[in-house]
Amino acid sequence: GAVVSQHPSWVICKSGTSVKIECRSLDFQATTMFWYRQFPKQSLMLMATSNEGSKATYEQGVEKDKFLINHASLTLSTLTVTSAHPEDSSFYICSAGGVSGSYNEQFFGPGTRLTVL
Amino acid sequence: SQQGEEDPQALSIQEGENATMNCSYKTSINNLQWYRQNSGRGLVHLILIRSNEREKHSGRLRVTLDTSKKSSSLLITASRAADTASYFCATAAYNQGGKLIFGQGTELSVKP
């Protein structure tokens, strides 16, 4: 399968600062990337769908002004958590979408652990 | 929003036993996928079953899909300690651009 990387793999920041997480598809062009958040012992919650060259589509309840998504190229999407607070501490996972046969396939990154102090 | 429910939430078995996890969903789907996640790590794609398929095998994994009941099951045969992980089902609906909705997951513990 395709390879998706995330950077950083973990980050610790102070409350009120902004943190940028990068998601890269290394060996294919991804027109669509997805961002998920996962709290401890819970499942993945889709935050937003990011399409190259257009605005992201956010899921209900996700603040678009707090979680800024940019998908400027076919291999890179970024998620910026603005004015982070301790409740934003979570595991953030991205995936890059491709088309295989008759279905859309997603390739997941290894995740970024964010801790806000 | 989460579409799927999985049961059991946690399952503890001995090595060599079979493990069965179930997933239910609410809307029509294009396909259903199963993923494994080791603690604190990313997702590993296990198997995908299309809506027109009823059963699929991959090594020690067997997945069934019953679209009339909107449910799926994952069977891991002859489990190993290395199978210890959380298992998630995820559904993809038609015309949703590949968006996946994940179930709540089953935490599997295989004791040596």
Walkthrough of the structure:
The complex is a heterodimer of chains A (117) and B (112). Helix content of chain A is 0%, strand content 57%. Chain A is an all-beta fold. Helix content of chain B is 0%, strand content 55%. Chain B contains no helices and eleven strands. In chain B, strands 2, 4, 5, 9, 10 and 11 form a six-stranded mixed beta sheet that branches. A five-stranded antiparallel beta sheet of chain B has the order 1-3-8-7-6, with no helix packed on it. Chain B starts with a strand and ends with a strand. The model of chain B has no long low-confidence stretch (mean pLDDT 92).
Provide a brief overview of the structure.
Chain A is mostly beta strands and about 120 residues long. Chain A is built from no helices and eleven strands.
List the helices and strands and how they pair.
The complex is a heterodimer of chains A (117) and B (112).
Chain A: E1 4-7, E2 10-13, E3 19-25, E4 32-38, E5 44-51, E6 57-58, E7 67-73, E8 76-81, E9 90-100, E10 103-108, E11 112-116
Chain B: E1 5-7, E2 10-14, E3 19-24, E4 31-37, E5 43-50, E6 55-58, E7 61-66, E8 71-76, E9 85-92, E10 100-102, E11 106-111
